[in-house]
Amino acid sequence: MTNAEAVTVTNKQIIFPDYVTGFPKESDLKITTTTIDLRLPEGSTSVLVKNLYLSCDPYMRICMGKPDPLSSSLVPPYKTGVPIIGLGVSKVIDSGHPDYKKGDLLWGLVGWEEYSVITLTTYSHFKIEHTDVPLSYYTGLLGMPGMTAYAGFYEVCSPKKGETVFVSAASGAVGQLVGQFAKLMGCYVVGSAGSKEKVYLLKTKFGFDDAFNYKEEKDFSAALKRYFPEGIDIYFENVGGKMLDAVLINMKLHGRVAVCGMISQYNLVDPEGVHNLPTILYKRIQLQGFGVCDFYDKYPKFLDFVLPYIREGKITYVEDIAEGFESGPSALLGLFEGKNVGKQLFVVARE
Amino acid sequence: MTNAEAVTVTNKQIIFPDYVTGFPKESDLKITTTTIDLRLPEGSTSVLVKNLYLSCDPYMRICMGKPDPLSSSLVPPYKTGVPIIGLGVSKVIDSGHPDYKKGDLLWGLVGWEEYSVITLTTYSHFKIEHTDVPLSYYTGLLGMPGMTAYAGFYEVCSPKKGETVFVSAASGAVGQLVGQFAKLMGCYVVGSAGSKEKVYLLKTKFGFDDAFNYKEEKDFSAALKRYFPEGIDIYFENVGGKMLDAVLINMKLHGRVAVCGMISQYNLVDPEGVHNLPTILYKRIQLQGFGVCDFYDKYPKFLDFVLPYIREGKITYVEDIAEGFESGPSALLGLFEGKNVGKQLFVVARE
């Protein structure tokens, strides 16, 4: 049963022409315009949505690489010639699915286009029930990155009060929350980021105990020793490569590393070598790779946990919002140069 | 209260002259002869033992390196100018400790010498209660390596029936047991070792489903794909470096790696780079470094588990026993060239 009017509108799309090697360029994403009928065919069980906010996330670089059975265990490669798939906040225009009706809001996987027809699978989409908080938060704090920080910190790292926590890419969509969760837990937390502005944010806005600009440090290990003279209990890993090498030799006995991302490696044809792995043995360290997809059953519990903190102003969130559909490609590519300050997204439409 | 005769005897010792870089040589271990009084001083709380079997273990190479705060979290560096410390099976000659009396047998940390005066600390020594099994087993199957295999496989790897298991250095003191534990658990298990003879042992004596000689493989990853077309659930890591790199890309989703040792790295001035760490993220793999010292509270439980299997012939153990005190240095150094077949130890005295 459909309830939309039978109108056909233009639908701008960001197409993925071909697989990418090295740093992606703007030419790797092409904007085209097509049309779409704003009514689903009779009998459809899909949902037709208007996309409001589209999310730029580091994992998307993995999807842009040549299909690889290794990385596709976490995220599938993009299909060429069609729009990029990403997370977005969308409004239902027409629905053949019993769980959604016209006007409902949801977040989940959509095409990078103005209108998408989506097929619901387990945890592919979540209905947005709470709208007293910014709707764009459902691409970040209240969406996949928020759940990632929650699952990675609480479930993977098993933090205890008083422990020392280091977060890399700390002002990003996930890192800024991990730092705030660590403070709520009574931990000492230091973050690294790639600019003075981000370091300032970490220390003032997000309440990190300290922070440093990794681009100003010749020796990451020496920097870590400055902030963690007694060593690190928990490392929330977003970066990989040289940073991981430096962290390993600064970990405490029985330390835990939650491997959430390795953004420094995604654009390399050959990943860097990490040399200090014997430390895993010496210090009896746990490295745990995780994906948020394994934790989505805890999403309602996460909302119950985090919404009161947001309403009381005890958790804050910084977004880097690009305006307009055409800004999508540069917003995404900026992630890999650290241009974003906070969670990167772009606005397709405000309602 | 002491109960030994006041006799002074010669005491041969294997002295550690200085810290070692690269592969240790025989000149890095010097045999000297001193004397010892076979009666403890009045009021001593120590135990004086005659050493019967002394154990050669890969971790000892770590102790021979320059003192390093990283590795000393697992094992302390040796002191120079005094005997090497290792694990041994010993007989009590005189005791000032209430838990031991003359004639008792124990295993634990002793000097590489004919007679040692030992001071008991928590889990430094264990009384040998079961002597219907070979006494030398307390340097291996029933001692530290056995407990290592037990804790590493059951506690760290959380194995399930039907899972696929890969063990490197599989014919060694620990590996041969991990393979047998894996078969008892109903797993499929493949081992790697460094000679035809060892591969034969793995397949015939220890019941591994398959085994390969890593020295005959140009491409470790291709070898692993041959034996694990569907991937590896559990990797029991004894080797590190290139082997770890190859294993990582052959792991299954949610695979577990128990990091027990990295013998290929101990003699390197700079450890090799491991390049495939992004796989930890993609496959959501756990790497867990562990030390047997964290599990010694489970030693009685381990004995209850393993002794019946030994008595019923369901677990077997291969030892490489060098004869005589003078054979100690070459026995130890042979480990780093893979000369040992099975658990390496040497006999100081049979009783």
Automatic annotation (TrEMBL), chains A, B:
One of the record's GO molecular function terms: 2-alkenal reductase [NAD(P)H] activity
Origin: domain of life: Eukaryota
CDD domains named among the record's database cross-references: double_bond_reductase_like
Keyword terms, alphabetized: Oxidoreductase
Biological process per Gene Ontology, one example term: response to oxidative stress
A single GO cellular-component term on record: nucleus
Pfam families: ADH_N_2, ADH_zinc_N
Domain Alcohol dehydrogenase-like C-terminal stretches: 173-306
Domain Oxidoreductase N-terminal, first and last residues per copy: 12-120
Matching InterPro entries: ADH-like_C, ADH_N_2, GroES-like_sf, MDR_fam, NAD(P)-bd_dom_sf
Name of the molecule in the record: Allyl alcohol dehydrogenase, putative
Organism from which the protein derives: Arabidopsis thaliana
Upper taxonomic lineage: Eukaryota, Viridiplantae, Streptophyta, Embryophyta, Tracheophyta
